[in-house]
Every structure is written in C-alpha cells, then in structure tokens.
Automatic annotation (TrEMBL):
Pfam family, one: Choline_kinase
Keywords annotated in UniProt: Kinase, Lipid biosynthesis, Lipid metabolism, Phospholipid biosynthesis, Phospholipid metabolism, Transferase
GO CC terms in record: cytoplasm
Name by which UniProt lists this protein: ethanolamine kinase
E.C. number(s) listed in UniProt: 2.7.1.82
Amino acid sequence: METHSEVQGNKHLHLDVCVADKPPHHGVTELLRRLRPQWRPEDIQMKVFTEGITNQLMGFYVGSMADSDVVLVRVYGRMTELFVDRDKEVEMLQVLSTHGCGPQIFCTFQNGICYEFMRGVALDDTLLRQPAIYRLIATEMGKIHSIKSSSNSPAEPVLWTKVSLFLELVQNSQSDPSVQQGSVSLCEVPSLEVLFKEMEELKRHLSHIDSPTVLCHNDLLSKNIIYNPAKGSVKFIDFEYADFNYQAYDISNHFNEFAGLSNVDYSLYPSCELQRDWLTAYLESYKACTGVGSSASKEEVQELYIKVCKFSLASHFSWGLWALLQARYSTIDFDFLRHWL
C-alpha cells in the first residue's frame, strides 16, 4: 500500500512495507520496485554499511556504485522508537534538505526510511583533526545552526526533555521482564537516585548559561561526516537525533567524539588551540549566515569556548544513559556500556 504522510505540513511518500533486519532482508525488493521501477531485480547490487551501531544501513544500486544512482535503506534498530522521535527525524531531514544541508528523502516505510546517498568518504580520527577539514565541519555546523524554526513560538532546547525521557526509560526497563538484564547487571551502573540527582545538578548549572537555541545535529561523530575531496566540502548524515538544542551542546558533543567510537582514547580530545581555531571558523560561518558580520573576535571565541567546555558534561551524561538503554534493548553486536560508562 502506498500513501503520502504529512509531517509539519510537508508530505512524503510512505510505503506499507516491513524490511527484515537480517539477510536476505525481505521487503527490500518491494521498496525498490516502487522507488526504482526501471531497475531489473537481477541487476541490483547491495553494499552493507557497518559503521552504524543503532540501525542497519544498506545501499542499493545498479552498475558501479561510484557512478550510479544509490538508494540508501535504513532499518531502524530494535525498540529505538522508544527514544527516537521518527516524525521529528523526518521533519528535520525535510528542513535540512530544503536548505541544502541534508539528503533527499525518497520514502519512509514501516520500520525505516529510504534516502539519498551522499558521495564522499566518512571521516576517520585522522581526517577529523586536519585543519582544512575541521574548518569545513565548523563552517557546515554554523550554516545548520543558522536555520530558523518555522514555528511562530521560540524553539525550546530538547536536551532536558530527552535526558528526562532516557531516565524514565531506564527506570521502566528495570522492571520489564522482556528486557535483557544480564549483561547490564554485571556493570557498576549508578543508582537511579544518583542519576536523577546528577541530572538536576547539571540542569541547575547549565540552564543559567546563555547559549542560543539552534537547530543541532546532536550526534556529530566522525562517521556522520562525509568528506567529498572532489568538491572540497563536507556534509553531515544520520540526523535521527537532530532537533533544536543549545548551541554549545552540539559543539561540545562533537569535540567529545574526537575520542573515537570503537577504541575510545581521550588523549585524542581536541587541544585548546584546535578548539579555538575550530570555534573561530564556526563563528565566522554562523555570524555570516545570520547576517551579523563575518569575523570573530578573540573575546567571542573565548566566551563560546567556556560554554562548550561546560556543556561537555551534559553530552557525556546523555550518551551514558543512551548506552544503558541500548545495552538493554539493542540486538546489534556492540558493547555499548564498555564505550560509554
């Protein structure tokens, strides 16, 4: 069945198809028959992307992947609808695509989404630290942060709503017999009382910091950045956590991601010099896109640097809760707790 869904006034194609998250991925053939009817089934090739730790991502194409049209199919991870607002994700993707900052959506389906393939290479830890590239990242983030809300009322930062939701889900999961408890109980996880107390302390401290509420990616790790050497540009991908949030949170979260994912090493956290250079490029982009100049003073850079340092704790806390939930619900073979707690 084919319908057109509407999110915040924007329509998109929705197909009543469920795609299996294990090979041979039943349901994909039907998706491609609707999206690319000119493709012969025997000619279709598949590439599985293995970097993701939340969802299953596959690319389908005919001929050479380097030259041909590619349809990305993302199958949502088990129970991720508990803590990811899929309607919000579609809304954010539509906004970002309109502004040239995100991929085009081809369709949604029962348990996933199909969208445009962004050509280039996913960054690694080495590329992330190269000045020419991290300045491109800062510039792109400044552009995204300048996108205004379409709502008539001021946007509210999603941080505390999301953290409260994570805590509530952690609390509920402890009494849910269907949830995987074994591996989690072996770890030294703080009590709920401690976690709630830490959230309140963070909120009390950070709510007094004057950080603008802007459209944020909220999950900008290296593999979510695509570098196109031919164009000399970067684009961000995987916007499932995108929403309006504190400017300093989005930047601090990205700096935390310098430590890596598979082999976390906090000696790779960006130096003060790198951060200030990054923040200078960011402020130049953000100010230019918002029409308030195109240069950043040392004082402005230092002020933002301090705010970013403070929000770093909130980033660690929210992803720690996320890791606890993933450890209990996810079927993906990844040791979430070892990397975040």
